[in-house]
Write a structure and sequence with these properties.
The chain is an alpha+beta fold. It has two domains: 90 residues, no CATH class; 224 residues, no CATH class. The chain has twelve helices and twelve strands. The N and C termini lie far apart (57 Å).
Length: 328
C-alpha cells in the first residue's frame, strides 16, 4: 500500500510514463532482453527522479520467471549501470568504479616491451611452475583438468566448434566426462569453459533455441584469452609476465596458447561490465589479445585431444584450481 501511494504521488513525466510501461511489461530472463531492460530501468528511473533503491525494488517485484533466474546482484548491477550512465549524460561526469579482480592484477605495458623483457621463456619453464604438477601422460590432461576445475555436477559442452549441444552426448556432467576420458582419449576438439544450465535459450540470430549459447551459461567462471596473431615465443613471454589469475593454459596444437582466466562473475551483467567493457578493451586488446574472445560461451581447445589436422597434441602446460598467475 505504501509503495502504491508513493507511486501515485510521483509526478507523471514522459520518463515516468516510459518507466512504468517497462516495469509493467518487463521481459522474461533468458535471451528475451531482460538484461538490457535492467539498464533501461536504471536510466529511466533516474530521469523520472526515482531513488535507485526504489528502482531495484520495482524490478525485483515485477521481473517475470524465465528460462534462467536473475539474481539480486545482477538486478542491482544492471540498474546501477543504467542509473550511473544517465547521471553521466546529464551532468557530464563519470562515477568512479572499482575495476574487476582480474583487471586490478594486469600491469600496464606494451607487448613489445613485455616480449623483450621475458624473451626466452619456454613451455618447460611454465610447466615446472604449474601448481598442479603436469607429470602425467599428455592424453590424461582432459580428465585431470576437469577434475581440478569443475564440480562433479557441472554440465559441460565438449565437442566440435559447430556441433549442437545435446544432453547426454556433447553436454554431460563433469563426472560423466571424467569417467569417459579415463577410459579413452578425448576425441572432441573443443570445450566450453563455463558450465551450462542444461535448459534451452533463444539463439542470438533468432533462428530457434540452443543449449550451448551465451544465454545458457550457469556459472560465469572463466574468460578465454588467446592471441594467435602473436608468435608462440611472445605468447609464452606474455603468460610468464601477466599478473592474471590463470586456471589453465593449453597449447592449441596450432599457433596459439589458450588461457582460462578466473573472472568469477556473479552473472551476465557483471560479465558485461568487468570482462566485455573493462578487462578486454582496456587491458588485453591493446596487447594483441583476440577480440573474438569476449563472450561467455567462448570455446577453448580441449586439453589432451590430438589434432589430426595439425599432427599435434592440444597440450596442457599450466593447471591451477585456485587461479594463480604464472609470474607469482
Amino acid at each position: 500500500m505504501e509503495q502504491t501511494a508513493a507511486r501515485k504521488k510521483t509526478k507523471i513525466t514522459r520518463a515516468m510514463f516510459d518507466y512504468e510501461a517497462l516495469i509493467s511489461n518487463f521481459p522474461r530472463p533468458g535471451g528475451e532482453g531482460a538484461h538490457v531492460a535492467l539498464f533501461k530501468a536504471g536510466a529511466l528511473g533516474f530521469k523520472a527522479g526515482l531513488h535507485k533503491d526504489r528502482i531495484i525494488e520495482d524490478v525485483t517485484e515485477n521481473i517475470p520467471a524465465g528460462s534462467r533466474q536473475v539474481t539480486a546482484t545482477e538486478i542491482e548491477q544492471g540498474v546501477n549501470k543504467g542509473f550511473q550512465t544517465a547521471i553521466q549524460e546529464k551532468f557530464g561526469f563519470t562515477v568512479a568504479k572499482e575495476p574487476s579482480k582480474a583487471v586490478r592484477r594486469v600491469p600496464e605495458g606494451s607487448m613489445a616491451r613485455i616480449a623483450a623483457a621475458n624473451r626466452g621463456v619456454t613451455v618447460e619453464d611454465i610447466m615446472k611452475k604449474s601448481p598442479v604438477p603436469i607429470d602425467f601422460p599428455e592424453w590424461e590432461a582432459g580428465w585431470r583438468t576437469l577434475s581440478a576445475l569443475y564440480r562433479s555436477d557441472d554440465l559441460l559442452y565438449i565437442g566440435g566448434s559447430k556441433d549442437s549441444g545435446i544432453l547426454g552426448d556433447t553436454i554431460r556432467t563433469a563426472a560423466e566426462w571424467i569417467d569417459l576420458f579415463k577410459r579413452e582419449k578425448p576425441k572432441w576438439p573443443h570445450i566450453m569453459v563455463n558450465p551450462l544450465t542444461g535448459k534451452p535459450a533463444p539463439k542470438k540470430d533468432g533462428s530457434g533455441e540452443t543449449l550451448r549459447g551465451d544465454g545458457n551459461i550457469a556459472s560465469f567462471r572463466h574468460a578465454v584469452v588467446e592471441m594467435d596473431q602473436t608468435s608462440l615465443a611472445d605468447q609464452l613471454a606474455f603468460w610468464s609476465w601477466a599478473a592474471l589469475p590463470v586456471r589453465a593454459l593449453v597449447i592449441s596444437g596450432g599457433k596459439s596458447i589458450h588461457g582460462w582466466v578466473d573472472v568469477s562473475c556473479a552473472g551476465a551483467i557483471e560479465w558485461e561490465r568487468e570482462v566485455e567493457s573493462d578487462l578486454f578493451p582496456n587491458y588485453l586488446f591493446p596487447l594483441g589479445c583476440d577480440k573474438s574472445c569476449l563472450n561467455e560461451s567462448r570455446l577453448s581447445r580441449m586439453p589432451g585431444h590430438f589434432r589430426e589436422d595439425k599432427g599435434a597434441m592440444q597440450k596442457l602446460i599450466w593447471l591451477s584450481p585456485e587461479g594463480k598467475a604464472v609470474c607469482e
